[in-house]
Amino acid sequence: xxxxxxxxxxLKSFLDSLTLELDKVQETLAVKxxxxxxxxxxxDLSLELQLFPEFDGEELRFTTARPGxxxxxxxxxxxxxxTDRQIRETTREPITRDDVAIELVEGIDPxxxxxxxxxxxxxxxxxxxMEKHNIDIEKVSDSPIDxxxxxxxxxxxxxxxxxxxxxxxxxxxxxxxxxxxxxxxNLVTAKPGPGFPRAFLNGEEVPVRTASDTTLRIGVDESRxxxxxxxxxxxxxxxxxxxxxxxx
Amino acid sequence: MLVxxxxxxLMPLSEFIVxxxxxxxxxxxxxxxxxxxxxxxxxxxELDVERKPDGTVHLGGGPPTQKIETSVMPxxxxxxxxxxxxxxx
Lengths: 248, 89
Fold this sequence. Notes:
The complex is a heterodimer of chains A (248) and B (89).
Chain A: E1 9-10, H1 11-33, E2 38-55, E3 60-64, E4 73-80, H2 84-90, H3 110-118, H4 124-132, H5 137-140, H6 147-161, E5 165-174, E6 177-185, E7 198-201, E8 204-206, E9 208-211, E10 215-219, E11 230-237, E12 240-246
Antiparallel strand pairs in A: 1-3, 2-3, 2-4, 5-6, 6-10, 7-8, 7-11, 9-10, 11-12
Chain B: H1 13-21, E1 38-51, E2 57-62, E3 77-87
Antiparallel strand pairs in B: 1-2, 1-3
């Protein structure tokens, strides 16, 4: 008899593991099929387990019955093979590169995350979809969600994933004006927010002439440049600020 | 052998199921005559459901390691599998 560890497990992690084991079965059988004309595949599987459920108020978890324990619940799982078409029709699309999984949103508290997951929101796109349908998330979830704060956390996480990268900065002339030209990537996002980007040279606001994903041109008055280091700060949006020292 | 005697842990469930599906494993030649096209197995099993530190679950399984009732019998779960024949080429 094998020794069993006691920690409880969630239904989701159990089913993930069971599905993974079945995938391995099908892969092994598919390899066998390379050299055999007739082979066998697992069509359906059912597993009846003797378990003890636990509920901590938030999540239902289980432990498997151990030798000598009586009164366990019997839970039956049935897994059948489905076609590619059924998978496409019934499975949600994986989270894309431009999306953010709710579990990866920085600063989100576990209760808010659990509340969102309970109502089927697992990514920022899901959240936007709810908003598009005018669904009041605060009302449908079972715990109060500060939507504004959540939106800020999402934007901050998104920005961190698309962090600005400066390749070069130089003092140059553009259309007769002296400008600080900054080249790079992810400098200004599609929706930086009203009033952004903003630039400050030695603490004084200076005009941003051109702003794009790859280029920033900031107008400067050469006569106001100090002989030593000049502090340039550019607030690209509420979540990204560039700081650099310029020497004329 | 479906039980690792070195650490007494049950084999990964996938290996156990593959072993069940390998009942006619010598079919190198094209099939002719009567061959089994479907097999349904319904059997008691011992299961290891072990939660790893990262929250994922490891599933081990195998046939009962004990048949004779002693002071404490293992817990028997039940596994039913339908295995069907497919022509690969």
